[in-house]
Amino acid sequence: MLVENSISMGGRRAKQCGRLWRTVKYEDVSEPGLCLGLTDYFLFYNGERPHQSLGYMTPDVVYRRAIGGGAKV
Description:
Elements: H1 2-8, H2 11-26, H3 34-47, H4 59-65
């Protein structure tokens, strides 16, 4: 579903989605067990991997703190 939505997205969100998929492509995701691999990778990407564009915080931290216009949880 994310892939379908990313086609019609514009601006900043589309760039973020493109960055995510580029990172998935070049980091540790392989074809065997792709679904499980992607699930594990997204948990790592959002919860453990610091992002330069987020001030070296993880997306989960930015989301929880509602930094940068994110939704408040």
